[in-house]
Amino acid sequence: MDDLIYRDECYAIMGACFDVYTGKGCGFLEPVYHECLHIELQLRDITVISKPKLTLEYKGRPLNQVYEPDFVCHDKIIVEIKAVNILGKEHRAQIINYLSASRFKLGILVNFGHFPRLELERFANTAKEPNAPPRLLDD
């Protein structure tokens, strides 16, 4: 179990998610959980960027389109949140694509809409590419 990617950072993020779920429960829309989780991550002194604009490319050429994961924590972990009854394949595909595009090694998919408990899934990017930082667009 010691070979988990960013184990301590991941546990800290997961702890914040559990506290938000304990405090708010199930039944709100995603923006409510987003705002609560942002506050909770900050209260825990977790380095967090909310809705960063990350660049995309196709065949080595930059695209005008960008993608915005819900959070980037510790400058290396993507956190994508949902508020749905059941996580679907499309939710898992979304975070896998975000990991591939960003070259980050770890993503956490969180579902606040599940009852009776929070759903959390870890996704490791096992691609052989280097962990290059994503390019953020200037606002």
Number of strands: 7
Unreliable spans are none
Percent in helix = 25-40%
User: What is the CA-based Rg, rounded?
Assistant: 15 Å
Distance between the termini: 40 Å
- Strand arrangement within the widest β-sheet reads 1-4-5-6-7
Please, what is the average pLDDT?
Answer: 92
Q: Please write the string of helix (H) and strand (E) elements.
A: HHEEEEEHEE
Morphology call: globular
Strand content: 25-35%
Structural class: alpha+beta
Number of helices: 3
- Main beta sheet: 5 strands, mixed
Describe the structure.
By secondary structure, this protein is α+β, with helices and mostly antiparallel strands. It has helices at residues 7-24, 30-43, 89-102, and strands at 48-50, 54-58, 61-67, 71-73, 77-82, 106-111, 119-124. The chain is built from three helices and seven strands, in the order ααβββββαββ. It has a five-stranded mixed β-sheet, with helices on both faces. A two-stranded antiparallel sheet has the order 2-3. The termini are far apart. Strand 4 and strand 5 (77-82) form a beta hairpin. The chain is globular, with a radius of gyration of 15 Å.
List the helices and strands and how they pair.
Layout: H1 7-24, H2 30-43, E1 48-50, E2 54-58, E3 61-67, E4 71-73, E5 77-82, H3 89-102, E6 106-111, E7 119-124
Helix pairs in contact: 1-2
Condensed summary:
Helix content is 33%, strand content 26%.
